[in-house]
């Protein structure tokens, strides 16, 4: 069922194969009829993740990329909507030569071709397919059927079933749901070669043997998937239980376990960092669900691991700041306003940015967070009290953020934003340039509005630094405060942060947050001394 961690399991298996020297790429199948995730509400479905090629995909893609540090393409994502759109278009073109078009064999053939093509074109050794949803759902039944066929057609193939093993009371793991799930999938013609059990407490030998017995498996093919302190621990946990050996024997590859030494060094820094804590406030709109800001959250984790500190991250509802005022933010070492759409909580975000700027708290603005950084600067430094983004107020005399010219004629919602990777040119000598360490950088985008070129000169005259522009069009991509403590970017650097390669702008934030924390600590200590 959803939320069990299929994405993390898929990413972990790819990672283990990668660490053994193989190229393994993930492919995700989702049953919903949306063509992509672009129109889905992050509150219901978690964040919309964006790839280099501009696809708007499920948040699991963030997990894949963060684990394996390889950029995905839209071919790694198949949704019900996408495959039906594809097949219906083919039918309209008359490419089925007079046949009635059926789920089996036409749709399933299409799916198998897709999988094989993905593997071939990426020159991959393995394709690791994650089927979303639950066994028995109508939505994913044709995916499972395609995979069943594949399991007989391909020589090197294995199926792993992820199930839930709840404990109703301590010491009593219940294997029944797993038995039923396994029967159900076997009745569809797929026989899992291994079962991974998402449990409430470690499985005892008796439960493992029971699951193995009902599933026609040897006990060494049943694995514990415990709650780990960080998801990045899962490759190690599974490797220690021998999953790499099992996969290797099934796929007939070198059986030695994966070498996780350098991966584990990073994981250990997340679990027990040696340089204390930093407190980060994430001021947003969907704060009741961590999933809505998954990539931002993970990017903070990556950068903090790099500096060997523990990030304490608080999600703060911006609408609430409108009532309480921003002074509660004084205890934070760094503030982030992430991307977003719509009106709710906008003034709260602007007040948080103002608080960060006037109190020298390190600030990172992502997309909307950058746009509002510009609005705040216009209102409070340039004195244009009515300044706003025309997304919220299109009557203002100072629309400092305005619709991108190419957006003006678009009325469809799906896949129509400025999406995907664009190259920006950084201004030499800026703080951003320092953290990136290069002049040209690629970051991913997802927006309709931009800094209004009409006002750029006024901003520069008042000290706002334009630290990056799109290399051809000149669209402002990055700005920073004159004090170097706040950077805003029109892009979403969080989509490119990896545990093994943290995003430079998050390094900027955490580095400055640590410095601020140390400064405050020193002032405190000196005061105690003089007292
Ligand atoms: N709503 C803003 C725009 O469309 C910002 C989008 C975002 O933060 N991703 O430009």
Describe the structure.
α1 packs parallel to α3, α11 packs across α12 (294-306) and α14 crosses α15. This protein folds into three domains: 6-157, P-loop containing nucleotide triphosphate hydrolases (Rossmann fold); 159-227, no CATH class; 278-518, 3-Layer(aba) Sandwich (Rossmann fold). Strands 10-9-11-12-20-19-18-15-16 form a nine-stranded mixed sheet, sandwiched between helices. A three-stranded parallel sheet has the order 4-1-5, sandwiched between helices. The chain starts with 5 loop residues before the first helix and ends with a helix. Helices cover 39% and strands 19% of the residues. It is of the alpha/beta class. The model has no long low-confidence stretch (mean pLDDT 94). The chain is built from 18 helices and 20 strands. The protein is globular. Glutamine binds at residues 339-341, 367-368, 391, 446-449.
